[in-house]
Amino acid sequence: YSYAQDSTLNALGKSALTLKDKNIQGVGINTYLDDHFKEIIINGALGIELAGIAGTVDVNTIENEAESYITNSNINISSESTSDEQSVDVYAQNNISSEVYGGSLGVSGNVAGVGAVSEVATIKNNTYAGIKNNSVVNAKKSVNVQTSSQENYDSILVAGAGSGQIALAGAVNV
Asked: Which of 34, 117, 147, 172 is the most buried (most CB within 10 A)?
């Protein structure tokens, strides 16, 4: 979270700062989240006499929250000696990328080989930017409020089975 709460700020905008390819000249309330997850799941079973049964269930819940806001605050109330480039930027960015690789193998020399893998994913990527609760915000050039959110989820699942009689294999991605 990035915020100005119950504050009075006067930024003249005479110098600049570049943050994540954004040029800020004045007040910048910015939150950046970039998360990457990688998961590898392997499971196997070998049955000599009767059956080789292997199963994998993977459940992923990914939750991220990026917030930037100004609340109950006065920003740039005085305009004395301010630059023509004076701005106020409220920006929240929330990026998630995830890779899941899963495999299951069941092998039996006799009756049955069973291999199964399942993967369930839930992504909650909340992103908020705002000016709220009686805030007064001024700038000579601009007041910008923006959000950006991106979710990338890649999953590769492989199941295999081998047996002298019956072989079953399955992979399910939800």
From this structure: 117
DSSP characters over 39-78: EEEEEEEEESSSEEEEEEEEEEEEEEEEEEEEES-EES--
Would the pLDDT of 21 be above 90?
A: no
State residue 95's pLDDT score. Answer: 93
Single-letter code of the amino acid located at 96: I
Task: Output the pLDDT for position 136.
Answer: 93
